[in-house]
Amino acid sequence: MKRIFSDFAYGAGPRQGCWWDETIDAPDWPVASGDIRADVAIVGGGFTGMSAALHLAERGVAVTLLEAEAPGWGASGRNGGFCCLGGSKLSDTRKRRRYGDDGARAFDQAEVDAVDLVADLIARHGINADTHSKGETRLAHSTRAMEALRREADAGHGRLHEKHDLEADGLNGQFFGGLTTDVGFALNPRKYLFGLAKVAAAKGTRLFCNSPVTRIAPGGRGHILHTPAARIEAEAVLICTNGYSSEDMPPWLAGRYMPAQSSVMVTRPMTDAELRAQGWTSDQMAYDTRNLLHYFRLMPDRRFLFGMRGGLFSSPGVEARIHARMRRHFDAMFPAWTGIEATNMWSGMVCLARDLMPYVGPVPGSPGLFAGLAYHGNGVAMGTYSGRALARLALGEQAGLPLAMQGPFRRFPLGRLRRAVMPPAYLAYGLADHL
Questions:
Q1: Which of 37, 152, 270, 286 has its CA 20 to 30 A from that of 365?
Q2: What letter does residue 268 receive in the DSSP assignment?
Q3: Is the pTM of this model over 0.90?
């Protein structure tokens, strides 16, 4: 595999300490071996791949899913568990300028539909994913950001919380107010993923772990996939690797996606008195209005989850510094909890696109090969939604996607050195956050 971060980023180090691993055991999937035939082969066992597998299996399609590592190893097993609006990093103004009013509205509706799809799958299949929160709340990190939230509220886009309301609403921290939308909810991402996997397997999907795809080549039935111990023939192939993609799997992906790190910590369970001391007693999931945002929520067991965008490099030393910075940010935002122990800290990769939009569609020049990725840190809902769309494409149907998600999927400048564009971008975002 040809990846653009150091080997450490793709190893066990960043995910050591992941809280979700302690909440549910991983299922026992075998390693792929020998000759395997399938109608559709899926590369990647996260939300996108598992959603595609489930939707195909419900249609009677023979599916083989290949996960390179252990079940739940990637971003889908270590994210913050926010099922919410998102998927793009474009502002509303830029979306309308690029896609027109109708195109922007279509993407906005897709965000809502993505959340609804997750809720439907959980309800329909009886998945216990520790769900909570009615919608989500954006909390203003500055007076200027609060003015923008007031304008949104005046336009009918949410319920406003002024600064003096926050403690009574159970959302108190170093904020200037907030805005709540009723779309979205929080969950345990590992329980959700493994719930999808259980249903997909029951419907006939063959799930394999520790089976990295090393090569995809044309074959008589469509495509031939090679792993260290298996050869898989499939009519269609879905690439669902997101931030853990490889430059050569397939080669068309090279330079078209940007992995970026996100880090998370979870505290020990807090008492009611400790929660009241800070004034945060709500189950509402929330994030702040910074470009380099923080996201956080009180979980059902009274642990507090806090996440932030991580570093631009990856090594044991960098990981330790990110954890220390995350703790400083947490203490500054929630000063009453400076003595509360963080029992778990970890990090993983989100995925960005040059045009700041997800891509779901064909791999040019390779009939029967499709890819879905670049959810900009909102993979719970958008990955699930994109997986369903990929299943439709594999069946020769219309994907049912807004045009904004159908490309173009342009390359970043500088090829494998493209991470060089990130430090100045992060610097600009950081400076803007202080205006």
A1: 37
A2: P
A3: yes
Q: Are 424 and 371 in contact (CB under 8 A)?
A: no
pLDDT band at residue 272 under the 50/70/90 scheme: very high
pLDDT tens readout for residues 120-165:
999 999 999 999 999 999 999 999 999 999 999 999 999 999 999 9
Query: Which residues fall within 8 angstroms of residue 91, CB to CB, at 6 or more apart?
Result: none
314 falls in which pLDDT band (50, 70, 90)? confident
Q: Which residue has the tokens 């499709």?
A: 370
Please, what is the angle between helix 189-202 and helix 47-57, to 10°?
30
Spatial distance between the Cα atoms of 39 and 53, rounded to a whole number of angstroms: 11
Which pLDDT belongs to residue 53? 98
C-alpha span between 131 and 391 (Å, rounded):
26
177-181 vs 159-162, strand pairing mode = antiparallel
Is it the case that residue 355 has pLDDT exceeding 80?
yes
Task: Tell me how far CA of residue 348 lies from CA of 78, 117, 216, 279, 432, in angstroms.
Answer: 7, 24, 26, 30, 25
98's CB contacts (< 8 A; 6+ apart) are: 90, 404
Q: Is 376 left (phi over 0), alpha (psi -120 to 50) or beta?
A: left
Strand segments, DSSP code E, in 61-162 are 63-66, 82-83, 136-139, 159-162
Q: For the chain, first and last CA: distance in Å? A: 41
* Alpha carbons 412 and 208: distance in angstroms, whole number: 32
Separation between Cα atoms, residue 145 and residue 177, nearest integer Å: 9
Mean of pLDDT over the chain? 94
E strand or H helix at 34, and its extent?
Answer: strand 34-43
Residue type present at position 350: V
- The answer to whether 375 and 76 have CB atoms below 8 angstroms apart is no
Task: Tell which residue, 403, 419, 197, 429, has the closest CA to residue 293.
Answer: 429
Cis peptide bond prior to 408, omega within 30° of 0:
yes
Detail the DSSP E strand segments found in 294-427. Answer: 294-298, 304-309, 342-352, 359-362, 369-373
Radius of gyration of the chain (CA): 21
CB 70 within 8 Å of CB 209: yes
Q: Helices 92-124 and 189-202 sit at what angle, rounded to 10 degrees?
A: 60
φ, ψ (nearest 5 deg) of residue 384:
-60, -45
Characterise 422 by phi-psi region: left (phi > 0), alpha (psi -120 to 50), beta (else).
Answer: alpha
pLDDT band for 427, please (50, 70, 90 cuts): low
Give the whole-angstrom CA distance, residue 21 versus residue 23: 6
